[in-house]
Each structure stands twice: as structure tokens, then as C-alpha cells.
Amino acid sequence: MMDKIKIHVMHTGYVCVSPDLPFGGENCSAIKASGIFGRKENRLWLPVSVYLIEHPQGKILVDCGWHRNMSPNGTLDKAAQIKSLGSLFLYLVNQGKIEKGAAIDEQLKRLGLKTSDLDYVLLTHLDCDHANGVGLVKDAKKILVALDEVECAKRHSAVRYKKKWWKDVSLTEFDWNDTEGPVRKSYDLFGDGSIELINIPGHADGLFAVKVKNVDGKFVLLFSDGGYAEKSWKQMITSGISLDRDKQKKSLQWIREQSMDANCLESLANHDPSVIPHVILL
């Protein structure tokens, strides 16, 4: 077993959203969060993060970011993005771009890895900026998504989710097998507590954080869209997109407690503009 777990924090492009989407708070309506009627000049460009975990038991990718086909030339491309997402509405809510070389398969190649080298891909939830790029890594050995999230995507397929993003991709649905987290639902990936997928519902039903822990009990928390930045848990600011406000607040409170734990080395949101790509040794 190697001495250290290595976590590569990478950005796979950017997403442009209304400021109310990430930081709208509990009284924000879904329409306001969408930004469709808001001022374009007030929009925020936020990074779209993914994480490669080099673990003694395999190589694990957390989320996939955007697909290259939605930004073929590395710039914002309205027509390409609408075609890739299959939705004009989703383009209006969140425009995206991926610089050349920043798509997940391109970044893995730069690290000397093939997508088939991935033992696991963990989809924290199925929103477009997390799952649209899954086709780029479809030959990974196993691609996991929570059963709760698959059911959530079925219920909200008319607007929020599009099955075409994972068409021809073999997804493995999992149910919770452990009891860590705000709603006592989690999945112990290796059965040793080193990689725990922890349900943090609210933003999406099957959303999970990934807690990566070493033998000394030190850990890194990758909390996806449980909050959109460090200030989310520090100031308890929920996002404007929520399926259940009470669960969202409960999840964010849990993220806050975990982030303030003395054993927490880093606590990272998926779209925090203050986070720059780096490597964590755990």
C-alpha cells in the first residue's frame, strides 16, 4: 500500500450563472436563480471542478465536468452547447466553456493516464456540469451514481436532467450501505472508511459528498454542490436551486461541522472561484 493518497484538484472549464444560483439563499425562487430574467453583466463565471484520487485500491475520478462537444474550440459556443445539452433552457441558465486541453480526457492524458485506467468514476449527481462529460470516460471500469439520484433524474427529466448525457454509458447504480452524514445515508466504497460517499440531499436527492480519509483519521471533504464556495458553509448560504430547502440546510450544516473538524485538511466546493488547481497529499 502506498503511503499517501493523492488528490488532483482540476478545473474542466467554467460555467456562467446568475449570482442567485450559487448564493441565492433559502428565500430565492427557482426562476430568480435561473437568471433568465436577470442582467447578463451581473453573471458569474465559476470553475467546474473534478477530482482524480490516486488511492491504494485504484484510481478514482469524482465528476466529469463538461463534454468537449459543447465547447469544441475552447470558447463559449451557443449552438454547440445547446446541441450537447439538448436544451435551450439549460443553456440560458448556465453557459459553459472548456479551454483547449481542459476536458477531463485531455487532462488525464497529460497525466499519462488513459480513461480506461480509471477504476471508478463517481458522479456526485447528474446535473449537466457534472455529468455531461461522462461520455469522455465511458470506458472506465465502473461508473457509479446513487440510485436516489437516478430516480430524481427521472422525475425531473423535463427541465433539469437529460438522459442523452449518459446515453451509451454503462452506469452502475448503488444504494447506501452505511450511515454517515446528515441523513445517515452513505456508501463505503472499499469497506474500510477511506472513501465514503455521503448523501447530502437538498440541491438534488441523490447528491453526495466524497470524504477521503487516511489511516491517521485526517480527511479531505469534496462536497460537490452541497454549497458553492467556502463562504457557503461559513455564512450558511444555501444555493438558489433546491429540491428540498430543509434538507439542503441540514446538509450544509453538516458540511460546516465537517469543515471545522480539526482533522479536516481541506473542504472543497465544486464551483468555488477561490480554489485553484492543486494536488493534495493525504
Automatic annotation (TrEMBL):
Keywords: Hydrolase, Metal-binding, Zinc
Cofactor(s) annotated in UniProt: Zn(2+)
The keyword Hydrolase appears for this protein: yes
InterPro entries per UniProt: MBL_superfamily_lactonases (IPR051013), Metallo-B-lactamas (IPR001279), RibonucZ/Hydroxyglut_hydro (IPR036866)
Region forming the signal peptide: none
Domain Metallo-beta-lactamase: 47-278
Gene3D superfamilies the record matches: Ribonuclease Z/Hydroxyacylglutathione hydrolase-like
Annotated GO MF terms: hydrolase activity; metal ion binding
CDD domains, per database record: AHL_lactonase_MBL-fold
Family note: Belongs to the metallo-beta-lactamase superfamily.
Protein's name according to its UniProt entry: Metallo-beta-lactamase domain-containing protein
